[in-house]
Amino acid sequence: MNRTAFNRFLALSRFAQKRHGHGHHVANPGPPCTFDLMPVPFQSYKKVYGELQGKFNTYLAVSAVFFASSFATAIYTNLFAFEEAIRPPQSYRNRK
């Protein structure tokens, strides 16, 4: 790249930066956030904790059963091809 083309490229890049540099005014975010906007609990912690733990334990049990069944199906259908991966490779004459 010669010197003239390089100088023109620099001038254009400076122009583009100046051209797109306006209009970015800070938007008014509104009043400051305070703790008055935080939700106030109306139920006991123990009750809510028990309900949530029951729901999450159900999710965990269902997902564990789903994982175990899908893994068992994959092993049954030889999806991972354990036998082919463990034994040594066949001779090139016996390959299909």
Give me the secondary-structure topology:
Elements (H helix, E strand, L loop, with lengths): L2 H17 L25 H32 L5 H5 L10
Descriptive notes:
- The chain is mostly helical.
- It has a domain of 55 residues.
- 56% of the residues lie in helices and 0% in strands.
- The longest helix is centred in the middle third of the chain and has 32 residues.
- The chain is flat and about 75 Å long.
Q: Unreliable segments (pLDDT under 50, ≥5 consecutive)?
A: none
What percent of residues are in strands? under 5%
How many strand segments?
Answer: 0
The topology string of helices and strands comes to HHH
Shape: flat
Number of helical elements: 3
| Residues in helices, as a percent range | 55-70%
**Mind telling me the C-alpha Rg?**
33 Å
Structural class designation: mainly alpha
User: Termini separation (Å)?
Assistant: 57 Å
Seen as an oligomer or otherwise, the chain set is single chain
Mean pLDDT: 83
- Biggest sheet details: none
